[in-house]
Write a structure and sequence with these properties.
This protein is α+β, with helices and mostly antiparallel strands. Helices cover about 30% and strands about 25% of the residues. It is built from 14 helices and 27 strands. The two termini are about 35 Å apart. The structure holds adenosine-5'-triphosphate.
């Protein structure tokens, strides 16, 4: 993490707290690691993001790759599901330990069995080398390679051993894996099974054990047949869901980026297997364009197609997987995932058909093709919290020339407050006009009135929370029935008729602002 990016992230976190975007959960008790609360402006921002997703995906007028309208319906499923769901999906079973993967050697290690060699005199940026606990030869190899790198001799006086799990995230990024040559190739430790467990009912035994869902996708898969039977959907079609997901992340960090409780916006788009390539490419490009349309338009946003050998087991033979990634201050110059778009083939529907015992009865009957099959799935899966964080990072714009020294450059569609309404002075009928305008607009837009302080201070407050327009009622308003609207970024002003203010905001928010 570079010095400038660290500093900038601190500024963003401070602004989020100061202006009521994001607070630490349970802050008065010292907080709880990996959990965050959204304040008044933050909850509006995140809601705007989720609404934009739902409006464009479920209520939108998308046109598919061959010119046909794209059909998508929504569901809203429970967080706790029958635990068999998680056996079928592959989430239960396997290991229950923190694991790290090495991107260079492709090996996997128990993170709590990894040790590192570190120079006793090591400064903040020192390199470390890892080995497996109990592997004396490995320790010697790690020690000698570090000593060689530091142009000194391997000896217990110079070097000490520490558990890998005791390192913080920044230190982990400087570790050379046991079978690697370069530092930073170990992924962060992840529980192989990251699910939070709980118990349903009064008796806390194995039979009562359930899980908080680690993703919203499985609620969609297990309802596939219900939706087909109860709605008039035909392949190709999608089922969308927005909701909370929980993962007991080993090292929650980077503000809300890796939280233990977060929200996902997931779409499972069901298709005939022969159409996977074209739908995959179409969704990948559509989703990338969507993030741009809500304000991540610069070169901080990239689309990254996965290499074949990085693909999840279910996606190996498929049309592909790509990530939409954002250059967060804490990942810069690298990028962090906002959304994954994957061709999951028929992995999930088949797994549920087998586990629930319905088997082939769960195959979809395609009337047009006169064929029974398990549909394939293209899954665009996005994080609402990472999305909101990217919007905050992108919007943060230092500007020494302004009273606020910073303004939040949100796209009007996602801005928490769309307009501030100010009487220039609190007399001569101006507050009354402001109140009337506020009443007219408030059911359609989030607007705030503010009659106190100098106009400059009022602009500064609105700049800091990213309000795109400030509407001022002045001495001329009674005469010309018009107001002055100031645009946040350019600070330019224009005169707009009082009865056209609603249409003005509508056009800016929903048009190509
Ligand atoms: P990562 O590799 O960063 O852990 P992932 O590939 O496991 O992410 P998915 O399972 O594909 O993530 O989940 C889809 C989306 O959910 C991600 O793109 C991300 O936006 C969001 N997400 C996943 N884990 C977290 C988390 N711990 N905190 C916040 N958002 C998350």
């Amino acid at each position: 993490m570079s010095e400038t990016s660290t500093k900038r992230m601190e500024d963003i976190v401070a602004l989020c707290r100061r202006r009521g975007f994001i607070f630490q959960s349970s802050e008065i008790y010292g907080g709880i690691n990996g959990f965050w609360d959204y304040g008044p402006y933050g909850s509006e921002l995140k809601r705007n993001l989720k609404n934009a997703w739902w409006e464009d995906i479920v209520h939108g007028d998308l046109v598919g790759p061959t010119g046909e309208p794209v059909k998508i319906v929504g569901v809203d499923c429970t967080i706790i599901m029958n635990p068999k769901v998680w056996e079928a999906s592959g989430h239960v079973g396997g290991f229950n330990d923190p694991m790290v993967d090495c991107k260079e050697s492709r090996s996997r290690y128990r993170a709590d069995h990894l040790m590192v060699v570190v120079n006793r005199q090591a400064g903040e940026d020192a390199r470390m080398t890892a080995f497996m606990d109990g592997d004396d030869a490995g320790m010697e190899k790690a020690g000698k390679s570090l000593a060689k790198y530091e142009k000194t001799e391997w000896s217990p006086e110079v070097y000490e051993i520490r558990p890998y799990m005791d390192l913080d995230a920044a230190a982990m990024a400087r570790v050379v894996g046991p079978d690697a040559d370069a530092p930073g190739t170990l992924t962060e430790p992840r529980m192989f099974n990251l699910m939070f467990e709980t118990y349903c009912g009064a008796i806390r035994d194995e039979d009562a054990k359930t899980y908080l869902r680690p993703e919203t996708a499985q609620g969609i898969f297990v309802n596939f047949q219900n939706v087909v039977d109860s709605s008039r959907v035909k392949i190709p079609f999608g089922i969308a869901q927005i909701g909370k997901a929980f993962r007991n992340e080993v090292t929650p960090r980077n503000f809300t980026f890796r939280s233990r409780e977060f929200e996902q916006m997931e779409l499972e788009f069901f298709i005939h297997p022969s159409e996977a390539e074209q739908w995959y490419a179409w969704w990948r490009d559509n989703r990338f364009a969507w993030w741009k349309s809500i304000g991540l338009a610069g070169d901080n946003l990239i689309l990254r197609e996965h290499d074949r050998d990085e693909l999840a087991h279910y996606a190996k033979e498929g049309a592909g997987t790509s990530d939409i990634e954002y250059r967060f201050p804490f990942t810069a110059p690298g990028f962090g995932e906002l959304e994954g778009v994957a061709h999951r083939a028929d992995f999930d529907l088949k797994a549920h058909a087998e586990h629930c015992g319905k088997g082939d009865k769960m195959r979809y009957f395609d009337q047009a093709r006169n064929e029974r099959y398990f549909p394939h799935v293209i899954e665009p899966s996005a994080g609402a919290d990472r999305g909101a964080l990217a919007l905050l990072c992108e919007a943060y714009t230092p500007d020494e020339s302004r009273a606020s020294k910073v303004f939040m450059n949100f796209h009007p569609r996602v801005a928490p407050v769309k307009a501030g309404i100010f009487p220039l002075v609190a007399k001569d009928g101006m507050p009354e006009i402001a109140d009337k305008l506020h009443k007219e607009l408030r059911r359609r837009f989030v607007v705030e009135t503010d009659a106190k302080q100098s106009i400059g201070k009022r602009y500064a407050r609105m700049d800091e929370c990213g309000t795109p327009y400030c509407i001022t009622i002045d001495g001329d308003t009674t005469g010309d029935q018009a107001v002055t609207i100031r645009e946040r970024n350019t600070q330019s002003q224009e005169r707009v008729a009082l009865d056209k203010v609603g249409a003005f905001l509508d056009e800016k928010i929903h048009g190509d602002a």
